[in-house]
Specification:
The protein is α/β, with parallel strands linked by helices and 271 residues long. Helix content is 29%, strand content 25%. The chain contains seven helices and 13 strands. The strands form three sheets. The protein has a nine-stranded mixed beta sheet with strand order 3-4-2-1-5-6-7-13-8, sandwiched between helices. The protein has a two-stranded antiparallel ribbon with strand order 9-12. α4 links the parallel β6 and β7. α1 crosses α4 and α2 packs parallel to α3. It is globular and about 70 Å long. The structure holds manganese (II) ion. The site of manganese (II) ion (MN) has 6 residues, from β5.
């Protein structure tokens, strides 16, 4: 058992003032010393982007809360490399306003913050709350789940290069049916982009029109949350697909380099 309280770095992509990060900070304070380093405004769908073209500023809002005018990834990198006096024992990103499931995790700033922590060798959890029936968000149950999952990770650790992506249904704690280990689901986007005409007659586009529909498959994050369970998906940062090695080996890839060499020679002749 640890003698000292663990240091937990908390971030998100909804911004430092979002209700979800405040609920998370309050609840995790019972198990560790909480340091919040989060974007100064909403950066949802920022993905794993890093700010390279402009300087980044950090503002200390209180002893344990710093806002950064950058992306969630910037926040984690800055926090771990510069801003925190001690290396955190755990990074928790969220609680995101809205689920982060299936393919959506590749756009998610919430998950990206956890990815960055994982790349820097710190165990990390991303946690998101599904939207309620009336477009409402009550973070109470999700914050309690975050606390319990955090305790488990602090106690047991995570394999190298793995983060946990947690999605919580929009239910009171007592109505949550349990926890399921899941895989990423699949969704079918319909009318994702709305095209309209501006007052000057030029077209413009708005991404995110219609609500997506999910394919109902067993053991996915979506199905678990729809059934009232907390979903925990272990995410591997090695995106290599080892099964496809055999397929690509059948492509006679030597001929690709050969054909490219042939072109170079011919272009040389033409010059
Ligand atoms: Mn968000």
């Amino acid at each position: 058992m640890r003698s000292e309280r663990p240091c937990i770095l908390v971030s998100n992509d909804d911004g430092v003032d979002a209700a979800g990060i405040k609920a998370l900070q309050r609840e995790l304070a019972s198990i560790g010393n909480i340091k919040v380093v989060a974007p100064d405004r909403e950066r949802s769908a920022a993905s794993h982007s890093l700010t390279l073209q402009v300087p980044i500023r950090a503002y200390r809002l209180s002893e344990n809360i710093i806002s950064v005018d950058g992306t969630p990834t910037d926040c984690i990198m800055l926090a771990i490399k510069n801003l925190l006096e001690v290396k955190p024992d755990l990074v928790v990103s969220g609680i995101n306003r809205g689920a982060n499931m299936g393919d959506d995790i590749t756009y998610s700033g919430t998950v990206a913050a956890a990815m960055e922590a994982t790349l820097l060798g710190t165990p990390a959890i991303a946690i998101s709350l599904d939207r309620g029936d009336n477009n409402d968000y009550d973070y109470t149950a999700a914050a309690r789940i975050a606390r319990e999952v955090s305790l488990a990770v602090l106690k047991r650790g995570l394999p190298d290069g793995i983060l946990l992506n947690v999605n919580v249904p929009s239910l009171p704690s007592e109505a949550i049916r349990g926890v399921k280990i899941t895989r990423l689901g699949k969704q079918v986007y319909e009318d994702l982009i709305i095209e309209q005409t501006d007052p000057r007659g030029k077209p413009y586009y708005w991404i995110g029109g219609q609500q997506e529909t999910w394919s109902i498959e067993p053991n996915t994050d979506y199905t678990a949350v729809a059934d009232g369970f907390v979903s925990i998906t272990p995410i591997h940062l090695d995106l290599t697909d080892y099964r496809t090695f055999a397929i690509l080996e059948g492509w006679e890839l030597d001929s690709i380099a050969e054909a490219a060499r042939g072109r170079t020679e011919r272009q040389g002749e033409n010059a």
